[in-house]
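[scheduler] slot 2 assigned
[scheduler] job type: sequence-to-structure, two independent chains
[scheduler] chain ordering preserved from manifest
[runner] begin chain α
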Amino acid sequence: MESFSLILAIVVITALAFDFTNGFHDTANAMATTISTGAMKPKAAVAMSAVLNLVGAFLSIEVANTISKGLVDESGIQPEVIFAALVGAILWNLLTWLVGLPSSSSHALMGGLIGATVASAGFGAVHGDVLVTKVLIPAVAAPVVAGVAAMIGARLTYRLGEHATEKATSKGYRAGQITSAGLVSLAHGTNDAQKTMGIITLALVAGGALAPDSDPPVWVILSAGLAIAAGTYLGGWRIIRTMGKGLTDLQPQQGFAAQTSAATVILASSHLGFSLSTTHSVSGAVMGAGLGRKGGVVRWSTATRMFVAWGLTLPAAALVAALAEWVTAFGNWGTALVAVFLVASSAAIWVISRREVVDHTNVNDTDEPAEATEPAGVVTQAVAAVTPPPAGTVSDDLAVTIPAQVQSDSPAAPAGSTSSSAAV
């Protein structure tokens, strides 16, 4: 075994920094609906989520093994490659957090690892079958499955509670929401914290500090769990606002259905070792729950921007990581240059974010940004056009001016009354 080198220490610290950004980037997955419906106070919600993320990190190592043993050929990987992969993932996380888009931290990490590996060892070092079966297929299937399940669940909950009082229904589903949010947090720890465990384990194997095919050491599991818990407690308030208010307006029944569906999909995927995007699962569930309520509306302009970010995540992180790997190949000064670039870019993004602060005090403000408000769709307008106005009212769009000649030919109406011929 070789000693724990400086570059290996840098990689481990950078991996934990990624885990931290993963925590605050994905807090919305567990707590956005709970916060937006008022089921929990924002700070209490993120504190509960942080604790359960830490607990979840100890429940399984299947996803960690997918990262460290399955996705790339670990025999041809050097610690500098892992470092470059993490640079691409961190920068993509920070950029999407800045604009409030719930993109996938998991796919950012996968993209970074693939890009850096290809730049270092060629396409042959990437296991394409694992990439397709355990990353790409779940990326497409997860939001669809979670969305359909949430839509059916929301409709079922409204059907079952249609004769109950609104007060009793809201109280019961708020309690259910807190429970299901806790389940999502636990599931997030079992899936996302493991990705950092896997990447650190891969770096330790590449640096000679661990034997090939080793499972993550206990200290790796603990440090990854603590890092993602700390990031979760910090709260990614920008993405929480988008997930809770920007996609659709959720009632407690819908929040409960969305979180329960997402948690089920995530836990099942963790058990199977799929490197699933919790963001994709929860976003799909939120949209499905939005469509599950009669009259519910999904803001497709926000959803479209989110879909574009999903599609760009893998290639964008891969490109940045490949460039970083190209620079680190020049030696220690190249690695130092990439490290300085990462720190400077992260600081610049943070400074820009201070221009418009979003935190627990204003995350639920009803004054939504212009892009979150959409005009009524074609179906909504059609329904409104055939719906008669309430009795005794005259629609401004239907009122017409009666020619003076017609008015003079009409019999005088009693004082204080309105002629029915004055509106069509």
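[runner] end chain α
[runner] begin chain β
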Amino acid sequence: MEHYDIIIIGTGAGGGTLLHKISTSGKKILVLERGNFLPKEKANWDTIEVFQKERYHTKEVWKTEGDKDLHPGTGYWVGGNTKVYGAALFRLREKDFERIQHAGGISPEWPLKYADLEKYYAEAEELFCVHGKMGIDPTEANRSGEYPYPAVSHEPRIQELHDVLQNKGLHPFYIPLGVKLNETDMLASACIRCNTCDGFPCLLHAKSDADINCVRPSTQKNSNITLLTGAKAVRLNTNPNGRSVISVDVELNDTLQQFEADLFVLSAGAINSAALLLKSANTIHPGGLANSSGQVGRNFMKHQNAAMLGISTKKNPTVFQKTLALNDFYWGEADYKYPMGHIQLLGKANKDMLRADAPFFTPGMVLEEMAEHSIDWWMTGEDLPVADNRVQVINGEIHLDYKENNTEGFNRLVNKWKHILKEIDNGDSFIPHGIYMRKTIPLSGIAHQVGTARFGTDPTGSVLDIYCKTHDMDNLYIVDGSFFPSSGAVNPSLTIIANALRVGEHLLERIR
């Protein structure tokens, strides 16, 4: 059996970034990825293939409440879900790290503060080529410097919208985007500002993802790294006293193989990382590995999410639409003291996207007319950590139980935004997420999965210490969205990336 210094399980925002950070250590590193490289093919930009046929999503089926089938909106690829994300790379707000009273309960304090992550946020923005402009978002935390790349400009219809919102006293700002774009010389730009970015794989490899920005450069430049694709980790095995992981069982090429290492990093995503710990139960750890607290799999969060079309009599010819966001109601408003959430533009919808959730009898001409006249919005609110919102493994299957919570503030945000859009004549009617947009089952939308192995200083109430090492195991780390104690109300990817850089720095000290 071959022995490695470090084994990393998963190559997404957490695992891929961590690999980048420790790649030059000279240590013998094995990277296990259950998926393969996402194929570079014309279907990358085919809306019917991507949205209707869900070509790049897993076909596996989980279970949810009542033993109902759940088809998760996730994919297994080198780079994880960053292959198809919208590359909106936000920092959490400084106050997100504090204890916050919401209408629906308490968002707990983090064991670290924003200041502890700021330099890693800056490093993450450089690594993932983030474009933005500081000083516009009223909720923005202190930054050590400007974004590494200039903001992605608005097209005319969106610039018009920006100006109207600004004249209304609001503070729209540029979405921080991880794209390889050079607007001063488009002939030299990898990104071409196409309409197949948000939710699509990038055929040009011009979207910053964990595969292109981290995994491929690391494996190509460093002979100490071995990447195995199609390699699904199915069990972690411990030494006799249960304090250390000594090996991992892997399904590879239709055989079960075992690999040993001194250090293990689990980065399979908040749901699958928790599931693997639970599947690895043994006589010393009957409730699953690293689960003396009973918290493994619990406190699952995925955000409150809604998409909305603002339909106007005015056409919207925008191609690359995902450039504008607004946080004016992130912490509430004058007559509402509780947080509400975040607003941003989606990638531009087309008729084939709308077809995915439209009634089957809706004429294509109607969908096309709607798409041509819509401005497409995405709203995010914070859901709170609840113990019964959890990942379980029952009869070898993943069960994901989740009940919505803290909905009052978010519902207020949605209604507030409808009212504002009507006031500025951006939309004459609004089509709610559940009728026309693709994700009609809220639980299937797990792109923002966090919280199933939260970090903390108290081993009885958390799974990980502040460096994301499991309290119970001397050599097992978890580096993905699992560590979040709370979800905030912005996309979690940049925080996962920044934390991976922070933990990577710690590991370099440990293995030196």
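[runner] end chain β
[qc] chain β: The domain at 3-511 is CATH 3.50.50.60 (FAD/NAD(P)-binding domain).
[scheduler] slot 2 released
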